[in-house]
Every structure is written in structure tokens, then in C-alpha cells.
Amino acid sequence: xxxxxxxxxxxxxxxxxxxxxxxxxxxxxxxxxxxxxxxxxxxxxxxxxxxxxxxxxxxxxxxxxxxxxxxxxxxxxxxxxxxxxxxxxxxxxxxxxxxxxxxxxxxxxxxxxxxxxxxxxxxxxxxxxxxxxxxxxxxxxxxxxxxxxxxxxxxxxxxxxxxxxxxxxxxxxxxxxxxxxxxxxxxxxxxxxxxxxxxxxxxxxxxxxxxxxxxxxxxxxxxxxxxxxxxxxxxxxxxxxxxxxxxxxxxxxxxxxxxxxxxxxxxxxxxxxxxxxxxxxxxxxxxxxxxxxxxxxxxxxxxxxxxxxxxxxxxxxxxxxxxxxxxxxxxxxxxxxxxxxxxxxxxxxxxxxxxxxxxxxxxxxxxxx
Length: 369
Ligand SMILES: Cc1ncc(COP(=O)(O)O)c(C=O)c1O
What we know:
Layout: H1 10-31, H2 38-51, E1 55-59, H3 62-72, E2 80-84, H4 89-97, E3 101-105, H5 115-121, E4 126-130, H6 141-150, E5 154-158, E6 166-167, E7 170-171, E8 178-182, E9 196-200, H7 203-212, H8 235-245, H9 248-266, E10 282-283, E11 289-292, H10 296-305, H11 332-340, E12 341-344, H12 352-367
Parallel strand pairs: 2-3, 2-4, 4-5, 5-8
Antiparallel strand pairs: 1-9, 6-7, 6-10, 8-9, 11-12
Helix pairs in contact: 1-8, 2-8, 3-4, 3-7, 9-12
The structure holds pyridoxal-5'-phosphate.
The site of pyridoxal-5'-phosphate has 15 residues, from helix 3 and helix 4.
């Protein structure tokens, strides 16, 4: 069905950037630069500059950014890695695939890692923490860093949803041993398909990720140093991402303005809880605009009928998916969020009219209740 307000609009996104994207695409193809060429190196340099780290290494997904970060940190069987229950399965799958044990904890009022829950979950087997900067909001990193250094734990940031978000003026992806980004097309910086990157200040981590993404081979010497994977960020994708990265600050400003419009239009409506948390130390990038209501499913159905497309991240806690083999960690706030959250349209192409239509429909829904 075609929506009056689509959740994302890839065709409009491309239409606006067509001359720049087409130029990058055709130049890369005309040169035959398909694998590990200058376009990838340029994008990595620009991404590292943007995040404020010494290195950025492109890989083929946010998942592999997490997996390789864990391997580069030496995490493996017998180790516990603490992360939140309210995240995409990829965060947890990366922990499982390196042979470590995921320890899932609850989130706080802003949907990110609760540092008090983190303090309670640390055991002698804990080796690493993966804070997840969800929806474009960085976790309370000062408290997480303090716990990590007190217990000598590695921090690997899942910044898949938070490129450009800041805490105390520092960028997501610049706090931990490494930061993990996703360029899945729905992300604020979305590529042509799957893509991701690891950011780090540690030369050994950058080197290990560079080896792991290319089957363990050092391209300069031809020596294979480790059993690796086939997981490069494609050159054509990097060329397009490099074009889009220049627009990202403007897109984030647009997302923040759009969030402000939603706030104005929806404050005090029904039982809605809006995602405007303390901004004193945070600069949120609003990867998603997630509201909470006890009437989530009926509201979503109503909005669909009104031509407004929404998504739910996520409707069931991860441990309820039996195939993942996770024990129920008993996280009441995570379970509550799964019942209440709904993501409203939010992207670089969302217009004030889109917000108006969405907010009018939501007000109508609650007026009729
Ligand atoms: C919080 C989080 N972590 C990890 C990932 C994995 O990224 P990718 O889909 O690029 O593998 C995502 C992507 O949706 C995500 O939202």
C-alpha cells in the first residue's frame, strides 16, 4: 500500500541526491574500482574525522563490526559480555558467535543501558560491556566508563543507531576500545545495501579488523595472519556513503527539528510518552522517534488506515524467540517497552506536513477513545 506519510522514502532520498550519487557511482564503475580502492580509504578517513577517532575500518555490516570488535578485543569462550535486552538481535548474536556468554540487563527511562543494572551484573567472568546507543541517544557513558575502568572491562560501543549523536560533547563511537556502526539503508547514514564500520584509536584493533574483513590476509605482504572472513565494505557503497556523509550534519539538524515539531504537536496527548529526555549532556541524533502508549497496537492499526506508516522496534523481547536459545533474564522495563513502543516517521525527507498529518491522526485516535 502507498502511504501518505511513509516511514522512509528511499526514492525521494535518491531524487534529491541524484547528481552527486550518480557521479560517484559512475566514476567508481568507470575506473573499475570495485574492491579496496581509494574511495573506501577516503570514506574511512572522513568517517574517522567525523567521529573523532584515529581509525575507521569499513566492513560489510554493523553485525560484523561488533563481531570483529569482540575478536580484536580477545573476547571468547568463558567470557561474559554484558549488554542490554532491548537491542537488535545482532548485538547478542555477535557475542554468541565468538563463543562468549551474553548477559542481558535492563534499560533506563531513556531506553538505553541502566548503569545501576550494569553495576549489579558484573561478575568475575565479565570481560566486556556493549552499551547500545539506541534511537540516536548515547548511553550515560561517564558512569559506564567508570565501572569499566574500576573492573578492568573492555567497552565496545554498539553505535549502529547513533552516528553523530554526542554525550558531553563526545561522539558516539569514540568512547570505547571500538565503536560499531551500521550503514543499513534505513540508518541516518544509509548505504546501497548492507555496510558497517569499526572506529577506534587503537592501531592493533584497526589492524585486526582490517585482517578479519579480508580473510586474514595482509594485502601489502600477502601473508595470512589469522582465519578471517569475507566482509569488506564494497568500494561502490563506500563512494556513495562518502557523498552522503557530507550531508549528515544537515540531516541530523533536520531530524532534531522534526523531533521538536512532534514534541510541540503531541505533548499531553492521550497517555503518550515522548522521547524528550534530559538534553543537558546529550545531543540526540533521533535515528528513530519512538513514543510509548498502552494502546500501541490499536494506534498503529489506526495510523495505517490513515495512511501513516510506523514500525515497532521490537514487539517481543529477544528471549521469547526460542531459536535464539536465551534464558529469560527477567527484565521488566524491556518487556514493557516491547508492548508500548511505536516509531513514528522520521528521516531526512520527513516534512512539517508529514508531522502534521501524523500528529492530527494521533490526536483523532485519542479523542475517539
Ligand atoms: C542496535 C543495533 N545493533 C546492531 C545492528 C546491526 O547492524 P547491521 O544490520 O548493519 O548488521 C543494528 C542494525 O539494525 C542495530 O540497530
